[in-house]
Specification:
By secondary structure, the protein is α/β, with parallel strands linked by helices. It is 41% helix and 18% strand. It is built from eleven helices and ten strands. A five-stranded mixed sheet has the order 3-2-1-4-5, sandwiched between helices. The protein has a five-stranded mixed sheet with strand order 8-7-6-9-10, sandwiched between helices. A hairpin with a 4-residue loop joins strand 1 (2-7) and strand 2. Helix 4 packs across helix 11 (321-334) and helix 5 (174-184) runs parallel beside helix 7. The mean pLDDT is 96. It binds 5'-O-[(R)-(carboxyoxy)(hydroxy)phosphoryl]adenosine and zinc ion (ZN). 5'-O-[(R)-(carboxyoxy)(hydroxy)phosphoryl]adenosine (KG4) is lined by residues 10, 148-150, 175, 178-179, 190-193, 196, 287-289, 291-292, 317-318.
Amino acid sequence: MLILGIESSCDETAFAVVEGGGRVLSNAIASQVELHARFGGVVPEIASRAHLECCVAMHHQALADAGVSIADVDAVAVTRGPGLAGCLLVGVEYAKGLALRHGKPLAGVHHIAGHIDSVHLGRERDAWGDDVRDAQRPFRPYVALVVSGGHSSLVHAKAPLEYATLGETLDDAVGEAYDKVAKLLGLGYPGGPLLDKLAATVAKSAYDLPRPLLNRDGYDFSFSGLKTAVARLVETDAPKREPGAPLPPDFVANVAAAFQAAAVDVLLAKARRALDDLGIDRLAIVGGVACNRGLRAAVRERLPRVKVAIPEPEFCTDNAAMIAGIGHRVIASRGAAGLGINAEPGLALDAATWNAA
Ligand code: KG4
Ligand code: ZN
């Protein structure tokens, strides 16, 4: 089964074609990063207008890259939520138009479930190392550490389309904290990749930052206190300089390394607790922050006996291949949605609700 996936929940307009829920034939993405960079974050109204302008081009690019026509596609899957209302609306209405015009079944899907399922994507092998052409690949339960710009959570993926949220952030998402800390340090947007690069230049930071909720029971996270600790460190410890002058590179790199060490410590400690408590030996790390080199290195060192799956970077940040992948599962096991579905910014992770009008 060939699925055309559509993703427009935030600042990426993405269309992709995926076969059999895992084999990625194309993954077309138009990023709006440059449009939002001068504002230091995503401006919802600008984002939804840009989605409108990019949809047609991305739709045709995804089909051309996959070497298929719309007639070859078996179904259309679209992110219905969570996300920015105006942005979701563009993708959902476009998907409905395609489904109506070409007589294709439609599936509404959950953005975070797409991230959680992204471990099953690949061009040859998925992130577990399994052959993506193997239709008999079994589903094995895992814990997903979802780390993105909008979400930070630990989810137990019990069975296909069956999720239990174990814990989530009580305030900022970890990617959001990366972006805010980068802004405090005078770096560009998005800050995650820039901080990651700087942190890698420092073997051991001169600073030690708090590990929020590290010793508290449960699996919840909190990152806003860490961001405030960085702000305080900049106020108290930054070398004296002319008003408006940038912070010294050495200081910025040390703060970046301290922030990254604290964030990685908390993420991996809570993930380890969830794995131990559930008696599960598989961990998936998904979402934009899963690109982080510090996190990737630390997980192998600190959880040596855990089977860890981290998707290729192109499937970690927002993309439509993950939407087509999870859409395949929805169409195969739950059937199609009607054309009455709407964008749902607060969509729940419960798959029974995704196709309901
Ligand atoms: O999954 P994603 O593309 O969008 C959301 O669903 O939010 O994640 C984007 C986030 C941004 O906050 C970005 O700064 C962060 O992922 N990110 C990183 C890295 N690459 C992207 N954070 C830390 N290290 C990275 N290498
Ligand atoms: Zn995302």
